[in-house]
Amino acid sequence: MAKTLDKILVVDLEATCWQGPNPSDMENDIIEIGVCLLDVNTGEISMNRGILVKPERSVISSFCTELTTITSEMIENEGISFKEACRILKKEYLSQSRAWASFGAYDLKQFQRQCNELGIGYPFGPSHINVKTLFALKKKLGHEQGMAGALGILEIPLEGTHHRGVDDAKNIAKILNWILQ
């Protein structure tokens, strides 16, 4: 399948988390897939949304809610299955034929792990762009920066709520757009 390179799919995940080590009976589950498309020619960001996902192997801790603002009630009312979320990525965002980007390798590894463990087809093609590493290389920093730090260096205001996938995906797209200029 030929890659579509006019737009890059930008993804940011939020997953269940705990202060300290994971409880022995729980696995990190994706609870939000923040996504948008970055037009590589115009820099326009479109189709920005947060897909809330019902965790299958864990629950949302109070620490997780403090970090992300995502509550169990939000997931109960608006969440869909991980399988359905992957279907949306493939159908509405053409995720298998587009290059996709995230800030660091966590999102890539978490998607691979969760798809493998739940027996769900991986929704992306092979072309992943690590914006965190590219930014450090382009700025000749000698080390990687967090997303908020990268925005600060570029003097781009952080839009929305940090650690909400819907907002972080858009902020990452702004950093990637700067790299591509």
Automatic annotation (TrEMBL):
Keywords: Exonuclease, Hydrolase, Nuclease
Superkingdom of source: Bacteria
Signal peptide positions on this chain: none
Recorded GO MF terms: 3'-5'-RNA exonuclease activity; nucleic acid binding
Record carries keyword Nuclease: yes
Domain Exonuclease: from-to ranges: 7-181
One Pfam family named in its UniProt record: RNase_T
GO biological process, alphabetically ordered: DNA metabolic process
Name used for this protein in its record: Exonuclease domain-containing protein
Source organism per UniProt: Candidatus Pedobacter colombiensis
